[in-house]
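To close the section, here is one more complete example, presented without commentary so you can practise reading it yourself. The ligand is dihydroflavine-adenine dinucleotide.
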Amino acid sequence: MVAGAGLFGLTVAERCARDLGLRVLVVERRDHIGGNAYSEVEPSTGIEVHRYGAHLFHTSNERVWEYVNQFTAFTDYRHRVFTIAGDRVYPMPINLATICAYFGRAMSPGEARALIAAQAGEVAHPANLEEKAISLVGRPLYEAFIRGYTAKQWQTDPRELPAEIITRLPMRYTFDDSYFADRYQGLPVGGYTAWLERMADHPLIEVRLGTDFAELGAAGNVPVVYTGPLDGYFGRAEGALGWRTLDFEFEVLAQGDFQGTSVMNYADEHVPYTRVHEFRHFHPERDYPGDRTVIAREYSRFAGPGDEPYYPIGTPTDRARLARYRELARAEKDVLFGGRLGTYTYLDMHMAIASALAMYGNRIRPRFLRQARV
Ligand code: FDA
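Output:
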């Protein structure tokens, strides 16, 4: 049995059915498969929207790339992000174009490095996130691009956030403005849902939607791969693990193009949202209507009970609780814990797939082959 039909659960189910010929029951709490990578078509425009936030596939892992290409082809979309700070637009992450535009003059990589190093030298021993960020990029860039955005992400003044939240800030001294550096990048040609449905499309795989693993009662004596929240599995006995969540405000607009790009960040604190996604720009190759577009404004906040957990926070309390949950998980007979919720780790899609393939290859397959020999 697999609990959760996200990319981790689907990869395990697909491998067990196709490679080992096992019957697999996948139970999924939501009314659709695909976990957070799920997308759907907005009915009045035909535009594919990502319900849980923009998902761009990228990997340098040959094995993962080969695996996913069995289920879908990918477009050649390359992700780029811009940010509005004040009344100007700059490329993100901060690169030489951002630095030259912000300081209003042409600089060589060496000149830009020297300028930022001098500005970053202002703080020697950072005691909070603000000081840490200044020690990495200097005060002017911090104030323009990081302070407001971070305050909105955490609903907290960066001076009150621990320095450890950031170890580095992406910064490039070239004009390369591509968001990901991976060898393989793109979006599934037929959309995410078609890709994910193809993974589950096997006579030995049964998917039960709207079914919470916790409410199943005794799962029987079948081995389980659990990809739901780790603390939830144990009834939060050691306390809740902290997450940030996002709220998306979707809107169909009567105009062909709202912002000219797929993701626009808003650096200023007085703008309440952090980003605006415009979904038509993920698929310029598609024949979308010229007079309507779909956008989603993204807001960030701490997750309360009942909210979708999106990004693990990882405070010292969280880390202590996680260590205890991991011990409990190790002692659980015939249950393997995986995926972003089951391990309390941020995983990109390619990482979720790679780790599911590793669990299958190292733990599940050897066990069933051994059983078959006995
Ligand atoms: P995922 O959360 O997708 O799936 C778990 C499933 O388990 C869910 O469907 C859930 O409903 C179900 N479940 C939970 N508890 C259950 C229970 N008790 N019983 C039954 N079912 C249960 N990655 C990337 O590569 N590029 C990108 O651009 C992005 N963008 C992005 C944006 C945002 C806002 C987020 C939060 C994440 C991304 N990601 C991403 C990461 C991507 O979403 C992530 O890699 C995958 O969701 C991981 O798949 P999992 O199967 O681990 O979890």
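Once you have examined the tokens, check your reading against these statements. The chain has a mean pLDDT of 94. The pocket of dihydroflavine-adenine dinucleotide is lined by residues 3-9, 27-30, 35-37, 52-57, 212-214, 227-229, 246, 310, 339-341, 347-350, 352 (CB under 6 Å).
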